[in-house]
């Protein structure tokens, strides 16, 4: 019995050490969990930023390709300004201003614009057609996007 009694203090010390080490492991796990959550949050934030950049790039590519298509169709018409708007995700509007040498050139330009897409509407005010030559115009093209 004396042998067991002499081991009791060592047993108490071992139990206290075990609890101390278990507390340290638990604290370490909380730190690791918090740090992995922070890392995951940073990765998600970077991914969101990347997606935003890609979205803006695609949108600017859409604008660029639209402007390029209009310029390719201009024929004898001189273009003086462009305004490209994207008021909703489904609609894009382009306002094109310029000077056409003749009314026939302007109507031809309007026809070419109408041929861009079957989802596009081309609005040319009738008052614009009052002039025969050196016709100053402003055309609005509205397209429903896929």
Characterize the structure shown:
By secondary structure, this protein is of the alpha+beta class. It folds into two domains: 1-72; 75-144, 2-Layer Sandwich (Gyrase A, domain 2), CATH 3.30.1360. The chain has helices at residues 2-72, 103-114, and strands at residues 78-88, 91-102, 120-123, 133-144. A four-stranded antiparallel β-sheet has the order 1-2-4-3. A hairpin with a 2-residue loop joins strand 1 (78-88) and strand 2 (91-102). The longest helix is centred in the N-terminal third of the chain and has 71 residues, at 2-72.
In short:
The chain has 146 residues and is of the alpha+beta class.
Oligomeric state of the chains in view: single chain
* Mean pLDDT across residues: 80
The number of domains: 2
Query: What is the end-to-end distance?
Result: 89 Å
Q: Order of strands side by side in the largest beta sheet?
A: 1-2-4-3
**Category by helix and strand content:** alpha+beta
Low-confidence stretches: none
The H-and-E topology, N to C, reads as: HEEHEE
The Cα radius of gyration reads: 36 Å
Percent of residues in beta strands? 25-35%
Count of alpha/pi helices? 2
Number of strands: 4
Q: Specify the biggest β-sheet.
A: 4 strands, antiparallel
Shape call: rod-shaped
Q: Give the fraction of residues assigned to helices.
A: 55-70%
Provide keyphrases for this structure:
alpha+beta, Gyrase A, domain 2, rod-shaped, 146 residues
How would you summarize the topology of this molecule?
Elements: H1 2-72, E1 78-88, E2 91-102, H2 103-114, E3 120-123, E4 133-144
Antiparallel strand pairs: 1-2, 2-4, 3-4
């Amino acid at each position: 019995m004396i042998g067991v009694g002499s081991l009791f203090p060592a047993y108490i010390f071992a139990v206290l050490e075990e609890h101390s080490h278990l507390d340290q492991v638990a604290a370490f796990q909380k730190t690791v969990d918090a740090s992995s959550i922070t890392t995951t949050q940073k990765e998600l934030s970077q991914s969101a930023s990347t997606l935003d950049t890609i979205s803006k790039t695609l949108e600017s590519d859409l604008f660029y390709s639209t402007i390029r298509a209009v310029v390719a169709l201009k024929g004898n018409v001189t273009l003086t300004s462009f305004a490209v708007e994207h008021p909703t995700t489904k609609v894009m509007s382009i306002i094109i201003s310029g000077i056409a040498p003749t009314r026939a050139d302007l109507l031809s330009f309007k026809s070419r614009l109408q041929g861009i897409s079957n989802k596009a509407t081309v609005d040319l005010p009738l008052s614009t057609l009052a002039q025969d030559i050196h016709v100053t115009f402003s055309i609005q093209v509205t397209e429903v996007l896929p």
